[in-house]
From TrEMBL, chain A:
Domain of life of the native organism: Bacteria
TM region(s), chain numbering: 6-34, 79-97, 109-128, 148-170, 191-211, 223-245, 252-272, 292-313
Pfam entry (one): Cyt_bd_oxida_II
Name of this protein: Cytochrome d ubiquinol oxidase subunit II
UniProtKB/TrEMBL annotation, chain B:
Bilayer-spanning residue ranges: 12-34, 55-76, 96-118, 125-146, 186-207, 219-240, 316-343, 355-377, 404-428
Keyword vocabulary terms for this entry: Cell membrane, Electron transport, Heme, Iron, Membrane, Metal-binding, Transmembrane, Transmembrane helix, Transport
Any one cellular-component term (Gene Ontology): cytochrome complex
GO biological process: aerobic electron transport chain
Protein name: Cytochrome ubiquinol oxidase subunit I
Example GO molecular function: heme binding
Record membrane topology: Multi-pass membrane protein
Provenance organism: Bradyrhizobium betae
Family per similarity comment: Belongs to the cytochrome ubiquinol oxidase subunit 1 family.
C-alpha cells in the first residue's frame, strides 16, 4: 500500500513537471515573443489545458498530505516563503489567461507582465525547492531545525535558474510542435541556446556536488546501477541534438520530455528510501494503513485512471496545430 | 511558538479563505444554471437560452478562474502555516481533501476547457455532458470540503495514536448528521447565490429597458428558484443549529449571547456582548423563545458561557453579530423572493420599479450571508482548530517567524486586492454589456483557436461606442 502511494506520488509529480513544465515554459518565453499575434498564438497553445496541468500540483500535494502527512507538514513549512511565492506566481499567471483578453488594449501589458513574471516566479521557486532538498535540510531527531530561511543557498538559487531553463526548453519544444511559421521558427531558434544552457547547468551542478561533497554523491558511487537514468538522459540529449541539427521536429518534444523523466528518475532513486534526504524515510512518513487503504480503494484504484482519461480527452479535443491567424 | 506569527497566520487564513469562498459560492450555482440552460436550449431550440448560456459562460469563466487560483492556495496553506495540525490530522484530512482533488478538480479542469474552447470541436450532446460534468465537479468539491470541515467541528471516527488522529471509522467520518446538514446548507446557499445574481441581473436589464426576452427568463428562473429554496434553507439552517447546540455548547452560547445558565432560556434578539462584565449591553430579549429555538421546549435549561473556563470560550462578539447578519440577510432574501415571485406570476413585476430596484440591489445579500455564516462556524469553533482536541495556538508551524508571516500576508493582500479589483471590474463590464449586444456582435461560439474571442475587448468597446450613440 505504501509502495503504491509512493509510486502514484512519483507519477503525479512527473506528470506535473512535464505538463505544467511546458506551460510555465511557454509563459516565460511569452516575454520574448515578437508581436501581439505571436503572443496570442502562444497563449492559445496552452489556454485550454493549463488549469488541468496545474491541478497535478494539487494532486501531488494532497497525495503527500494524505499518504505522507509528516513530509507534507515538514516540507511546506520548511519551504514557507518559496511555497508562498510560487503560489502567488501561479495566481498571477493563472488569471492572466482570462484577464488578458478582457483588458482594454492599452492595459494588456499588465497581464503580459503578470503572466511572464508569475511563470518565472513559480518555476524558479520550484527549482529552489529541489535544489535545497538535494543539498539537504537541517534535522535534529526527525524535526526540521533549519529555520524559515533554511532553504536559501547559492546552490538552491542555481537550481532555481536551472529549472527555469529546463521549463523554457520544454515550452519551446511544445511551441514547435503546436505552432506554424513565425512562432514555431522563433521557438526553433531558441532551442539550441536553451539546450546548451541546460547542459551547462547540469555540468555545473555535477561539479558543485563533487566539490561540496554533497551526501547525494556517495549514494551514486554506492549504487552504480543508478547510471541507467543519466544514460537514458544522454541518449535523449543525443536525439535532441540530432533533431536540432536536422531541423526535424518529430521527436523534439519527446526527447526533451525523456530528459526530464531521466533527471527526475535519477533524483528520486538517489533519494530512495528517503522522502526528505536524509532525514525522513518513506516508512517513517507513511500514514496509517486505514488512511492509505481508504485512499487506495476509491481514488487510487478507480478515480486515478478516470482522471488520466479526462486529461487524455482534453488533449485529444485540442490536438493538432494552433492556427496562426489571429485577425478578428 | 510566536504569538504574532500565530495571529498573522490566523488573519492570513481567514483572509485567503474569505476571498476564495466568494467564487465557488457563485460558480457552484452558476454551473448548475448553465447546465439547465444548455439542456433547455437543446430541448426547445429557443434562441434565448443559447444567448443566456453564451453570456453567463463568460461570467462563469472569469469567476471560475479566480476560484481556481485562489483555491490552489488553500491546499498548501495547511502545511505552510499549520504544520502541527496538518501532521496530526493528516491521516484524516489528507485523504478527504485528496478525494476532493481526485473526484472534483480534475473533472472541472478538463471539462471546463471543453466548455470554453470546445463548442465547435465536440458534438452538442458531448458539450452538454461537459457542462454537467463541470457542475458535478463543483458540487463534489463542496461535499468534500464540508466533510473535512465538519470533522474539524465535530471530530468522530478516530483514535489518537503517537500524536496522530488515526481514522478508525470512515463511514462515521463521511456519513454523519453533521456533514449531512452542513453540506446541503452550503449547497443551497450556493444555489441561492446563483439565483439572486441571475435575478438581479434580470432586474437591472428591465430597469434599463433592454434584453427583453433574456431579462424575463432570468427574473423568473432566479426568483422562482429562490422562492422554493429559501424555506428549505431555513430548515437546514435550523438543523445546523441543532448540531451546534448538541456538540458545541460554548459556540451555541456565544451565538445566543447567553452568559449564564437559564431555565427556561430567553432569546437575545439584539445587544452588544461585553466579555468584561460577562453580560450584554443594550439587549432586547424575548422570554422562553431561547428554549424553544434550542430544544423545541418551553422549559429546557440552556447552557451559558460562564459554564466554560475563560480560556475555553470562543470570542463572543463576532459569532453573535455575524449570526444575526446572516439570518437577517436570509429573511430579506425570503421576502424579496416571495413577493417578487408573486408579482411575476401576477404579471405586475415589470411595472413595479421599486421592487425591481430591490431585486437588483439584493445581489450582495447571499454573499454576505455565506461569509457571515462561515465566520459564525469558524470563529465560534475557537479556541479550537479541531474541536475539543487541538487548540489553534498549538497547531501553528512552530518555527514560523513574525516577519515571514507578515511578508506573506502583505503579499497575499496586495495580489488578491489587485486581481479581485480587475476580476470584479471585468465581470461588471460583461454584465453591463448584456447578452443581446454581445450576441448581435459576436459570432455564435468563438472560433475554436481564438479562445477569448468570446468577448474581445475591441468587440466590447465597439459595441459600447455603437450603443453610446
Amino acid at each position: 500500500m505504501v509502495l503504491f502511494w509512493v509510486a502514484l506520488l512519483a507519477i503525479s509529480i512527473l506528470i506535473y513537471l512535464l505538463l505544467d513544465g511546458f506551460d510555465l515554459g511557454v509563459g516565460m518565453l511569452f516575454g520574448l515573443a515578437g508581436s501581439e499575434a505571436a503572443r496570442d498564438t502562444m497563449l492559445d497553445t496552452v489556454a485550454p489545458v493549463w488549469d488541468g496541468n496545474e491541478t497535478w500540483l494539487v494532486v501531488a500535494g494532497v497525495i503527500l498530505w494524505g499518504a505522507f502527512p509528516l513530509v507534507y507538514a515538514t516540507l511546506l513549512s520548511a519551504f514557507y516563503l518559496p511555497v508562498i511565492i510560487m503560489l502567488l506566481g501561479l495566481i498571477l499567471r493563472g488569471v492572466a489567461f482570462e484577464f488578458r483578453h478582457r483588458a482594454a488594449p492599452q492595459f494588456r501589458w499588465i497581464w503580459d507582465v503578470s503572466f511572464v513574471g508569475g511563470s518565472f516566479a513559480a518555476s524558479f521557486m520550484q527549482g529552489v525547492t529541489v535544489g535545497a532538498l538535494v543539498q539537504g535540510l537541517k534535522f535534529t531527531d526527525g524535526a526540521y531545525v533549519g529555520g524559515i530561511l533554511g532553504w536559501l543557498s547559492p546552490f538552491s538559487l542555481l537550481c532555481g535558474i536551472g529549472l527555469c531553463l529546463g521549463y523554457a526548453l520544454l515550452g519551446a519544444s511544445w511551441l514547435v510542435q503546436k505552432c506554424r511559421s513565425g512562432v514555431r521558427d522563433r521557438a526553433r531558434r531558441q532551442i539550441p541556446g536553451l539546450a546548451l544552457a541546460v547542459l551547462a547547468f547540469l555540468i555545473i551542478v555535477f561539479a558543485h556536488a563533487l566539490i561540496e561533497n554533497l551526501p547525494i554523491m556517495h549514494r551514486w558511487l554506492d549504487r552504480p546501477y543508478l547510471f541507467v537514468f543519466p544514460a537514458v538522459g544522454a541518449l535523449a540529449a543525443a536525439v535532441l541534438a540530432s533533431s536540432i541539427l536536422r531541423h526535424n521536429d518529430r521527436w523534439l518534444f519527446a526527447a526533451v520530455a525523456v530528459i526530464f523523466v531521466a533527471a527526475f528518475g535519477t533524483l528520486a532513486l538517489s533519494f530512495w528510501p528517503y522522502m526528505i534526504p536524509f532525514a525522513i524515510t518513506i516508512e517513517d512518513a507513511a500514514a496509517p494503513h486505514a488512511s492509505l487503504a481508504f485512499m487506495f480503494w476509491g481514488e487510487g484504484l478507480f478515480v486515478f485512471p478516470l482522471m488520466v482519461l479526462y486529461v487524455a480527452i482534453g488533449y485529444r479535443v485540442f490536438r493538432g496545430k494552433v492556427g496562426t491567424t489571429s485577425g478578428h | 511558538m510566536n504569538a504574532t506569527a500565530l495571529l498573522l497566520s490566523r488573519i492570513q487564513f481567514g483572509f485567503t479563505i474569505s476571498f476564495h469562498i466568494i467564487f465557488p459560492a457563485f460558480t457552484i450555482g452558476l454551473a448548475a444554471w448553465l447546465t439547465v440552460l444548455e439542456a433547455m436550449h437543446m430541448r426547445t431550440g429557443r434562441a434565448v437560452y443559447q444567448a443566456l448560456f453564451e453570456f453567463w459562460l463568460q461570467i462563469f469563466g472569469v469567476a471560475f478562474g479566480m476560484g481556481v487560483v485562489s483555491g490552489v492556495v488553500m491546499g498548501f496553506q495547511f502545511g505552510t502555516n499549520w504544520s502541527v495540525l496538518s501532521k496530526m490530522s493528516g491521516p484524516i484530512q489528507g485523504p478527504l481533501l485528496s478525494y476532493e482533488t481526485f473526484t472534483a478538480f480534475m473533472l472541472e479542469a478538463s471539462f471546463f476547457g471543453v466548455l470554453v474552447f470546445g463548442r465547435k470541436r465536440v458534438p452538442p450532446s458531448f458539450y452538454l455532458f461537459s457542462t454537467a460534468m463541470v457542475s458535478l465537479g463543483t458540487t463534489l468539491s463542496a461535499f468534500w470540503i464540508m466533510t473535512n470541515n465538519s470533522w474539524m467541528q465535530v471530530p468522530v471516527g478516530y483514535v489518537l495514536q503517537n500524536g496522530y488522529f488515526v481514522p478508525d471509522n470512515w463511514t462515521k467520518i463521511i456519513f454523519n448528521s453533521v456533514v449531512w446538514s452542513r453540506f446541503p446548507h452550503m449547497l443551497l446557499a450556493a444555489y441561492l447565490t446563483g439565483a439572486f445574481c441571475v435575478a438581479a441581473t434580470g432586474a437591472w436589464y428591465v430597469l434599463r429597458g433592454d434584453n427583453y426576452a433574456e431579462s424575463r427568463v432570468m427574473l423568473r428562473m432566479g426568483l422562482f428558484l429562490a422562492a422554493l429554496l429559501i424555506p428549505v434553507q431555513l430548515v437546514f439552517g435550523h438543523l445546523v443549529g441543532d448540531y451546534v447546540h448538541d456538540y458545541q455548547p460554548a459556540k451555541f452560547a456565544a451565538i445566543e449571547g447567553r452568559w449564564h445558565d437559564e431555565q427556561p432560556a430567553s432569546e437575545v434578539l439584539i445587544g452588544l456582548p461585553d466579555p468584561a462584565t460577562e453580560s450584554n449591553r443594550y439587549e432586547i430579549k424575548l422570554p422562553i423563545l431561547g428554549s424553544i429555538i434550542a430544544s423545541s421546549s418551553l422549559t429546557s435549561k440552556e447552557v451559558g458561557l460562564t459554564d466554560f473556563a475563560p480560556q475555553d470560550r470562543p470570542p463572543v462578539l463576532i459569532p453573535f453579530v455575524t449570526f444575526r447578519i446572516m439570518v437577517g440577510c436570509g429573511l430579506i432574501m425570503l421576502a424579496i423572493a416571495w413577493f417578487g415571485s408573486y408579482l411575476s406570476i401576477k404579471r405586475r413585476l415589470r411595472r413595479n420599479r421599486a421592487m425591481l430596484w430591490a431585486i437588483f440591489l439584493s445581489f450582495p445579500l447571499p454573499f454576505i450571508a455565506i461569509l457571515t455564516g462561515w465566520y459564525v462556524a469558524e470563529v465560534g469553533r475557537q479556541p479550537w482548530v479541531v474541536y475539543g482536541l487541538l487548540r489553534t495556538a498549538d497547531a501553528v508551524t512552530p518555527f514560523l517567524t513574525a516577519p515571514a508571516a507578515l511578508t506573506s500576508l502583505v503579499l497575499f493582500g496586495a495580489v488578491y486586492l489587485f486581481i479581485f479589483s480587475f476580476g470584479t471590474f471585468y465581470i461588471y463590464r460583461l454584465l453591463r454589456t448584456g447578452p443581446t449586444r454581445l450576441a448581435v456582435e459576436a459570432p455564435h461560439g468563438a472560433s475554436p483557436n481564438r479562445p477569448m474571442s468570446l468577448a474581445d475587448p475591441e468587440l466590447i468597446q465597439s459595441v459600447y461606442r455603437s450603443a453610446g450613440e
